[in-house]
Design brief:
binds adenosine-5'-triphosphate, 23% strand, GK/Ca_channel_bsu, alpha/beta, kinase, Rossmann fold, GMP kinase activity, Guanylate kinase, 183 residues, binds the ligand Nc1nc2c(ncn2[C@@H]2O[C@H](COP(=O)(O)O)[C@@H](O)[C@H]2O)c(=O)[nH]1
């Protein structure tokens, strides 16, 4: 077996990255390394599943201590991956997955090369809107996601795997195949 690998789920906002990543991670026994964020949890998000939610003060203190491998500013909020959490599974010989925007995905790729596999998920804009409305996402967040779409979708050209997430079972099958091609 090669690796261990860091599988990076990236793509257009609202494309289903979290849903697909958690399903595949659970099925294949790949560990989720959560990002830290200063943004508050949304009503639709179970506590502690998607992020470590922390205050801005704590985020900035961690940043000053050099604890993050990468950080991003999105809107007014901060996001970051803690180096020691990312490398714990890797050092112990286990694969890990993270969910990042294109900026974070590029940084990890630059730093860790072939150990990083980027899986780009996308759907068309109308589907993003429909799914997020159904999920009960606030209108301002949906509008922000849709506003980012054109800028985000071009990153697919740089990713190792590109999946259009229209049908859950088909996407899961494509991602399973993509991941297994590295193992
Ligand atoms: N293949 C699919 N078919 C139908 N609905 C889906 C599919 N994949 C995901 N969804 C639904 O779309 C919604 C958005 O998915 P999810 O929150 O996983 O997206 P995301 O890309 O992680 O969003 P974010 O940009 O907030 O990180 C959820 O309600 C999810 O259940
Ligand atoms: N570069 C990073 N991007 C991250 C990180 N954690 C999440 N994200 C991405 O941010 C946006 C916004 O997420 P939302 O949950 O607030 O809607 C989305 O694209 C995430 O994938 C991170 O640590 N670094």
């Amino acid at each position: 077996m090669a690796g261990p690998f860091i599988f990076v789920f990236t793509g257009t906002s609202g494309s289903g990255r979290k849903t697909i990543a958690h399903r595949i991670g659970e099925e294949l026994g790949i560990e989720h390394v959560l990002s830290y964020t200063t943004r508050p949890p949304r009503d639709t998000e179970p506590p502690d599943r998607d992020y470590h939610y922390i205050t801005r003060e704590r985020f900035e203190a961690m940043e000053r201590c050099g604890e993050f491998v990468e950080t991003a500013v999105i809107g007014r909020e901060r996001y970051g991956l803690r180096t020691q959490e990312l490398f714990k599974p890797i050092q112990e010989g286990r694969h890990a997955y993270v969910i990042l925007n294109s900026e974070g995905a590029s940084i990890l790729k630059r730093l860790y090369g072939e150990q990083v596999v980027r899986l780009f998920l996308y759907v068309d804009k109308r589907t993003v809107k429909e799914r997020l409305e159904t999920k009960g996402m606030p209108v301002d967040v949906i509008d922000r996601y849709l506003g980012l779409y054109t800028e985000e979708v071009v990153y697919r050209k740089q990713c190792e795997h590109v999946i259009e997430n229209m049908t859950m079972n088909r996407s899961l099958e494509q991602i399973r195949t993509a991941i297994q091609s590295h193992l």
